[in-house]
Design a protein that fits this description.
Distance between the termini: 56 Å
Number of strands: 7
Largest sheet: 5 strands, mixed
Number of helices: 3
Strand order of the largest sheet: 1-2-3-5-6
Strand content: 15-25%
Structural class: alpha+beta
Order of helices and strands: HEEEEHEEEH
């Protein structure tokens, strides 16, 4: 595949991720507010805030990987690297890899959390497609994560 087509597939994949995360067909409004971080960030493509929690802004980070390969059978084949996974594991917040099957505009999710092996992620099961039900599960997982942690530090040397 030539470089130009690869760039187009990647850009379209990022747009599909935004459409998926802001889908509100099963909700009264979108659950998430994604912000594209651009090419300057080495590992993550999106900073995503939860829209439904009053008084707090729970968030997570997303790395998007798009492919135009054949339709997924039982899993979507993507190409992340060991360094991608290691980089996501260093971020002290929830992190996910989103695989996008660009021709069908389907998005699949895989968590990168403590305990995940530091090796390339090459497949995401189709059971993890970001449908309405899985968007709600993602929302609840991130909210649960931030409820167990303080929202802000309780002190600072800079007072």
């Amino acid at each position: 595949m030539n470089r130009s087509l690869k760039d187009v597939i990647g850009k379209r994949g990022e747009n599909i991720v935004e459409l998926c995360l802001t889908d509100y067909a099963n909700f009264s409004s979108p659950l998430f507010s994604p912000t594209h971080l651009g090419d300057k960030w080495p590992v993550v493509d999106y900073y995503v805030e939860i829209e439904t929690v009053q008084g707090k802004r729970p968030f997570f980070f997303v790395q998007a990987k798009a492919t135009a390969a054949t339709s997924p059978g039982t899993s979507l084949r993507i190409s992340s690297t060991k360094d991608d996974v290691a980089g996501l594991l260093q971020i002290p917040a929830p992190t996910y890899t989103l695989g996008v099957h660009e021709p069908s505009k389907r998005v699949f999710i895989r968590s990168v959390h403590d305990g995940v092996a530091v090796k390339a992620i090459t497949r995401i099961p189709i059971a993890y497609e970001l449908t309405g039900g899985n968007l709600k599960l993602l929302h609840d997982e991130v909210v649960r994560f931030w409820r167990r942690r303080r929202h802000k530090p309780t002190d600072s040397v800079f007072l």
